[in-house]
Amino acid sequence: MAGGKKRGGRNTRKVIVAKSQKLVAPADYKDVEGLKKYLGPQGQIHARSRTGFGAQDQKSIKRAIKRARHLALLPFVG
Amino acid sequence: MFVLDNDVVRAGWSTAKALVTDLIAKHGGTVTTARHWGEHNLAYPINRKSRATYLLSYYEIPNEGINGFVRDLDLSVPIMRYLLLAVDALPEGEEAEAAKEGASDFALPEPPRDDVGEYRLWEESEDDRPRGPRRDRTEEAPEGTAVDSVETKEPVAAAAEAADSTEEK
Description:
The complex is a heterodimer of chains A (about 80) and B (about 170).
Chain A: H1 17-21, H2 32-36, H3 48-51, H4 55-70
Chain B: E1 2-4, H1 6-11, H2 13-26, E2 30-46, E3 49-60, H3 63-75, E4 79-82, H4 94-99, H5 134-140, H6 146-149, H7 155-168
Antiparallel strand pairs in B: 1-3, 1-4, 2-3
C-alpha cells in the first residue's frame, strides 16, 4: 500500500471536551445537565483521555455522576 | 437530598416535607432549610415508579443520632432514596430559596401521573407480572392451553397399564 490511503486499524481520534472548550469540572451532583456532557450514549463515564481533565477534576466528576446516579438523576445504563 | 414518592406529595407538600423534618427532629437534629427541588422523571424506575419529587434539606444532626436516622430512612417506604453529605457551610442563596416556601402564595402543582413525561419507563405487560412458583403458573393458565391439554399419568399407574398390555399379547 505504498503511497495509498491507510486502511483499517483502530480509530484513535478522540474528542477532548474540556481542553477544547475550556470547561470547568462540575463538582455538584445537582448539575445534571453539566454532568451529561461527560457521559457516553450508554451512560458510561468518559475517560480522562477524552475529557481532558486532570486527576482531581476527573475524580470530582466521577463522584458527582455516581451520586446523581444513586438519586436516579442520571442513568446507570442507557 | 431525599427522593419522595409522589403519592405522598399529592396528599400535601407540607405532609411530605414533615416526613423528613420530623425524622431529623426525632434524632436530635435541627433543620436549617428544607425545600422542594423539583418533580422529575427518574432515570430508572424505583419501586415501579417513574416519577418522584426531590427534597433538598440542610440540617445539623449530632453524631449519635445519625445511625438511627439512617435506619429510619431505610425503613421509610415513601422516602425512596436519600443522599446524606457533610457540608462545610450553607450554600449561598439557599436560605432565600427555602424562604420562598414560607410565602403565603406558595403552592405546588399536583404531581403528574407516572406515565406523563419524556418517556415511559414502566409499562405493565404480561411479562412484568410477579411470578410465583411454576405450579402456580400452571394452575393459572387459561383453559385450552397446552398446559391443560397434556394429561399426565402417575408413574405407577402407567407401569401397571403397560404390564396389562403385555399380558394381553
